[in-house]
Structure of Methylglyoxal synthase:
Amino acid sequence: MEIALIAHDGKKAEMVNFLMKHKDALNNNKITFVATGTTGKYAEQTGLTVTRYLSGPLGGDAQIAARVVEGKTNMVFFFRDPMGKHPHEPDVNMLLRLCDVHNIPLATNPATAEMLLDHLK
């Protein structure tokens, strides 16, 4: 099972807190992680092994979207900041649309991510 981790700058701390809170569950399910560049750097600080792609604004969201299309990514945790401006919003929308097209579970906040994790137990 591959889970993609993405968080806008205003949500990176929330992602780290989520990963720390659920570290045991995430380590016990033979899950591999991919992430956009900066989010991946933060996720690695929690002790998880993460394959990092480019930063979102530099194409990382598009790289994760490609993995969704290829059937490699099985779930996406994308903690979005709905109050911030994001110059790469077209890539964000593409990723969200492709998750819907390919029926990939997508959590845009910790509450939904927790529900998806409960499914893995």
User: Anything to note?
Assistant: The domain at 2-119 is CATH 3.40.50.1380 (Rossmann fold). The two ends are 13 Å apart (CA to CA). The helical segments are 12-21, 23-27, 37-44, 60-69, 89-101, 110-120. The chain has six helices and five strands.
